């Protein structure tokens, strides 16, 4: 029995070697590319979390009652955090918890800027807390600040429940008096001593050197204000004890 030697063509062997070498080069190229991508990502993250891309230039617009230091403290921007780490919605919510702030918008400006734009609340009324202490209230019932003197042009509220610290809100039981303050004509403010709510009479307005005005319920407030202004302009009310406006079209004056 004879055996036959298998002879491999040198060209075929060279081709196989070349194919294996090319496959190895491709694998190496893929590995190098992956390592380069990882290095790029790591480098980019390192730069983004470095002081080079941090909140270093902070501009604030619209804040006249909240100080820059307060705004930086509640947002944490005073620590110059990386811009990429900022949670803009959380920053805005933190600012809007400050007493005077109605709305806040925080915007990122690469590579190192943050702008804060604030819309502030405006006081509508005040409540006397003590001989030299007054709480400023906005139209929603939010307490804005405690001050040491009355503020001209605000509706004076009386006989309220507990008035919370600045940033808090008046109780639901005080909302009717606040609604009366919102409906009060600007021309009448200088003639008002206080607004309140009394059992059996409802909402009342004590005028300066003039009768107590009984408004009653919240219904038809606009008509009641028009009736009151017309009566004060056209009639002599001095000497009367009350003006009953519970029926807007039929005011009743009593001694």
- How are helices and strands ordered from N to C? HEHHEEEEEEHEEEHEE
What is the total number of structural domains?
3
Radius of gyration: 37 Å
Give unreliable regions as ranges. Answer: 43-47
Query: For this structure, what is the CATH class of the largest domain?
Result: Alpha Beta
Structural class: alpha/beta
Helical segment count: 5
The tally of beta strands, per DSSP, is 12
Main sheet characteristics:
5 strands, mixed
Distance between the termini: 145 Å
The portion of residues assigned to helices is 25-40%
Q: In a few lines, what is going on in this structure?
A:
This protein is an alpha/beta fold and 255 residues long. 31% of the residues lie in helices and 25% in strands.
């Amino acid at each position: 029995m004879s055996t036959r030697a298998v002879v491999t063509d040198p060209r075929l062997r060279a081709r196989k070697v070349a194919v294996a070498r090319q496959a190895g080069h491709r694998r190496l190229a893929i590995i190098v590319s992956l390592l380069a991508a990882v290095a790029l990502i790591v480098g980019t993250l390192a730069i983004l979390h470095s002081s080079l891309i941090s909140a270093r230039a902070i501009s604030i617009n619209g804040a006249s009652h909240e100080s820059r230091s307060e705004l930086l403290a509640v947002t944490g921007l005073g620590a110059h955090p990386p811009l990429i780490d900022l949670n803009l919605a959380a920053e805005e919510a933190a600012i809007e918890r400050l007493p005077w702030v109605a709305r806040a918008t925080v915007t990122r400006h690469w590579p190192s800027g943050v702008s804060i734009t604030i819309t502030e609340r405006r006081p509508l009324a005040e409540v006397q807390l003590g001989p030299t202490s007054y709480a400023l209230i906005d139209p929603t019932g939010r307490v804005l600040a405690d001050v040491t003197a009355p503020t001209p042009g605000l509706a004076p509220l009386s006989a309220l429940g507990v008035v919370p610290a600045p940033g808090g809100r008046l109780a639901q039981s005080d909302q009717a008096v606040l609604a009366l303050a919102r409906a009060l004509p600007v021309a009448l403010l200088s003639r008002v001593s206080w607004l309140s709510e009394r059992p059996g009479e409802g909402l009342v307005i004590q005028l300066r050197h003039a009768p107590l005005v009984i408004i009653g319920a919240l219904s038809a407030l606009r008509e009641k204000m028009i009736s009151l202004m017309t009566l004060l302009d056209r009639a002599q009310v001095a000497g009367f004890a009350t003006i009953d406006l519970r029926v807007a079209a039929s005011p009743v004056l009593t001694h």
